[in-house]
Amino acid sequence: MTERSCLSIILAAGEGTRMKSASPKVLHRVAGLPLVAHVARAAVAAGSGDIALVLGRGAEEVAKVVAPIAAKADTFLQEQRLGTAHAVRAARDAIARGYDDVLILFGDTPLVDAGDLIAARRKLAEGAAVVVMGFRTDNPTGYGRLIEDKGELVAIREEYEASETERRIGFCNGGLMAVDGAHLLDLIEAIGNDNAKKEYYLPDIVEVARGRGLNAVAIEAEFETLLGINTRVELAEAEAIWQRRRRRELMLSGVTMIDPSSVTLSHDTVIGAETVIEPNVYFAPGVSVAGGATIRAFSHLEGATVGPNCEVGPFARLRPGADLAEKAKVGNFCEVKKAKVGAGAKINHLSYIGDAVIGPKANIGAGTITCNYDGFNKFVTEIGAGAFIGSNSALVAPVRIGDGAYVASGSVIVESVPDDALAFGRARQRTLPDRGRQLRERLADQAKK
Ligand code: UD1
Ligand code: MG
């Protein structure tokens, strides 16, 4: 099938008013990725690198999101919204380049399955001119019904035009289609707007095709995969479905989740086998966790790389550029940003490590802070292999702590410390015998007066 060329037209000119949002509906995100990008990815996965976007407002922003996914992405403005067939016509110039297959997709159905698109293309290869993606439901109210006869699709009847018997049909139009590229322009131009709303309906393509002696068929997809997003409630439903599926895949690939429903993943989260994820962990985009790691409860990770057998959390925050080598540990209430943490190094309690390079097996004491920012610029802290940073130390960057060096607890380190040196960056303690008792008695006397 790969030798058949394919264009995907993604319809996304809808106003999306029910989202109550300043940004275009298709830029809202599921799993951290815009809805339209999910659709574009499915198209590409189904062998359709060329994408035509039909857009209304926010065209530039939407195009920017799709461009890196597609081999070729063109945008077409649909100035007036006169229906789904009218929207397809807006992409006329792309269709006219000549493709074997054309997929017509909606920008607001992010769960569309590439496997279903491939199945639809296969039907085209077998000779169908129009393939409609349908779903079955016990509650078909509101959807167009698929009228079949002897395995062929005869018509799509919108709810308000359907007869009593037709309304009882539970096989509904999911909206997405695959159409023979050689016929599409002709078919789409022939669709009229002789209906109550005076709109050009894409579903009418079935009857137009049959009128020309062409064959139309319906294939069945899961309802979930055709879920269209109109409100933020539906957005959350799609998110929940996406999360459930992805968690399942990860668990089946060898990741343990104690309470899967409390783990949030992103579209690009990578987690290796034998990793354990405790409850309430959030993976923002850009995270990769190698095998055998433990991510403890209430940790938040974004743009971070976690090496094999690392331990993170509970209550850890890994920000972009956190890069933990094998067996490193980042414990409770620690924040790590843009820092390489060497193999077996430990940052166990209450620390901020930013713009830093930490050598293997270094031990960062509780409350250590890298002072990386002077209000204008950021500076780097280097901590050598096996170095020991005493608790509650402030390392004022730029500064280097050498391999095997010690920093005394409570130090403010402003000068680099050579390898194997011991640095005190605080006043020496004075202890005065009996002076505690004297002070107490004086204070007590004063209080009596
Ligand atoms: C459509 C189908 C219906 C099907 C349902 C499944 C039509 C006429 N009806 O209805 O049979 O059961 O999907 O969800 O197709 N769009 C444009 N320009 C337009 C109109 C729409 O770009 O002029 C885009 C929208 O942004 C959206 C998509 O096309 O992404 C679908 O339009 P929508 O209005 O949601 O169609 P439905 O009423 O859901
Ligand atoms: Mg819709």
Can you give keywords for this protein?
single chain, 449 residues, alpha/beta, Spore Coat Polysaccharide Biosynthesis Protein SpsA, Chain A, UDP N-Acetylglucosamine Acyltransferase, domain 1, 10 helices, elongated, binds uridine-diphosphate-N-acetylglucosamine, binds magnesium ion
In short:
The protein is built from 10 helices and 35 strands. The protein is of the alpha/beta class and 449 residues long.
Beta fraction of the residues?
25-35%
Distance between the ends: 99 Å
* CATH architecture type of the largest domain: Alpha-Beta Complex
Average pLDDT level: 97
> Which ions, cofactors or small ligands are bound in this entry?
uridine-diphosphate-N-acetylglucosamine, magnesium ion
Walkthrough of the structure:
- The strands form six sheets. Strands 13, 15, 16, 18, 19, 21, 22, 24, 26, 29 and 32 form an eleven-stranded parallel beta sheet that branches. A ten-stranded parallel beta sheet has the order 12-14-17-20-23-25-27-30-33-35, with helices on one face. A seven-stranded mixed beta sheet has the order 5-4-1-6-10-7-11, sandwiched between helices.
- Helices cover 22% and strands 29% of the residues.
- The model has no long low-confidence stretch (mean pLDDT 97).
- It starts with 5 loop residues before the first strand and ends with a helix.
- It has two domains: 6-226, Spore Coat Polysaccharide Biosynthesis Protein SpsA, Chain A; 232-423, 3 Solenoid (UDP N-Acetylglucosamine Acyltransferase, domain 1), CATH 2.160.10.10.
- The longest helix has 21 residues, at 232-252.
- By secondary structure, the chain is of the alpha/beta class.
- It binds uridine-diphosphate-N-acetylglucosamine and magnesium ion.
- The site of uridine-diphosphate-N-acetylglucosamine has 27 residues, from strand 1, helix 3 and strand 10.
